[in-house]
Automatic annotation (TrEMBL):
Protein name: GNAT family N-acetyltransferase
Organism this protein belongs to: Marinobacter salinexigens
Record bears the keyword Acyltransferase: yes
Coiled coil: none
GO MF term (any one): acyltransferase activity, transferring groups other than amino-acyl groups
Length: 377
């Protein structure tokens, strides 16, 4: 086996890089000037692969200054070096360096007729999420691929939150609550039946279109009913999501449901705070072995403005880590894509507001089983 070394490119590699580019590509080539510019940009990475001392491949990774995205802009392997895993080694090193730089997702474009490259990227865990039409000089189309590259290692400083995917389009709230409760009680069932029971208890009946989702009042009550401590943090008083429906009858139903929730809350020890849950308070809750369930807008995740519940599992100086119960299998998502999903703290601040005119912030903090129940079991 040849001796393979990965390192950062230097100015001394410039001539070899230009020569490799001209050997590997007939169109859309990087110029000498472009290589020199990328060598001078410390934020980006130009990684080269040497085989037995000879430069035989490179990977150019761009690091977006405004987002947590990285992008493989160009990848080239000399013909004589193919079959030795050079491309895979370059991609993996690019991912490692991007993750070390705090990037969450790696993206790339590949010609739709480049079957070997597409096969490599799929094998390495990349999934297609779009297409660029007329992308190349010859008007060829590019397929867009991405892969999550930053993963959180669970810490004993926080509760260990198991993952549970929602099984219906409308039960993200129950799924998020189930994960929070199961983190605090290993006997908590994680089943579709329990998910639907919670939805029946906590649903607002109407919201947007289709089946109603769950509100913070109902989720807090569902947690309390199952013996957990619970508190609710809601930035607005009165019936929630009332403005999402136009029918007056539906508005009246939402008001009656809210009245019922408030009556039931009054008969519990649930703390109701009419103020947003801050990041500091959220982190404090995690350190106290409590698990926050947060209402977000999915705009920051997938470009749609839909209310959605997620479970907060951990936090550090850069990120809030979420379990997102919704898995889009049609888009190639898997469980691994939705566990400990890192969200930049600043982005999370925007994400945890639903609505544009008067943004709603809502959260439920699930605490341990109540002592009276513990002593009776």
């Amino acid at each position: 086996m040849p001796d393979i070394e990965l390192r950062h490119a230097t100015n001394a590699d410039l001539n070899t890089l230009v020569g490799l580019e001209n050997r590997c590509f007939t169109e859309d080539r990087l110029s000498r000037r472009s290589f020199r510019r990328f060598l001078d940009v410390p934020r980006d990475r130009l990684i080269v692969c040497c085989m037995d001392g000879e430069l035989v491949g490179y990977c150019l990774v761009l690091m977006n200054a405004a987002t947590r995205l990285a992008r493989i802009y160009s990848l080239a392997v000399a013909p004589e070096a193919r079959g030795f895993g050079v491309g895979e080694k370059l991609v993996r090193e690019a991912e490692r360096e991007a993750a070390d730089a705090g990037r969450i997702v790696m993206r790339l474009e590949v010609r739709e007729d480049n079957a070997s490259a597409i096969k490599l990227y799929r094998r390495l865990g990349y999934r297609q999420f779009g297409t660029y039409r007329d992308y190349y000089e010859d008007h060829g189309d590019a397929l867009r691929f991405e892969r999550r590259i930053l993963f959180y290692e669970p810490s004993r400083a926080y509760p260990q939150v198991p993952y549970y995917p929602q099984t219906t389009d409308f039960s993200c709230g129950p799924a998020a609550l189930l994960m929070a409760m199961a983190a605090l009680d290993e006997d908590q069932p994680l089943t579709t039946l329990e998910e639907l029971r919670i939805w029946r208890e906590a649903t607002t009946i109407f919201m947007l279109a289709g089946h109603g989702g769950c509100g913070p009042h109902g989720l807090a009550l569902a947690a309390w009913k199952r013996g957990f401590e619970a508190s609710a943090w809601i930035s607005a008083e009165g019936p929630l999501f009332r403005d999402t429906v136009r029918n007056e009858h539906k508005k009246k139903v939402l008001e009656l449901v809210h009245e019922g929730f408030m009556h039931d809350l009054g008969e519990t020890g649930i703390e109701l705070h009419h103020e947003p849950l801050t990041l500091d308070r959220m982190e404090e809750a995690l350190h106290q072995r409590q698990v926050p369930v947060i209402l977000i807008s999915t705009w920051q995740l997938n470009g749609s403005r839909v209310p959605h519940w997620v479970t907060v599992c951990a936090m550090d100086e850069q990120f809030v880590y979420l379990h997102d119960p919704e898995i889009d299998t049609d888009a190639g998502e898997s469980v691994a894509d939705k566990q400990y999903l890192p969200v930049d703290r600043k982005v999370f601040g925007k994400m945890s507001r639903y609505g544009r005119v008067q943004p709603l912030q809502a959260a439920v903090i699930v605490g341990p089983k109540r002592p009276a129940l513990l002593s009776s079991t």
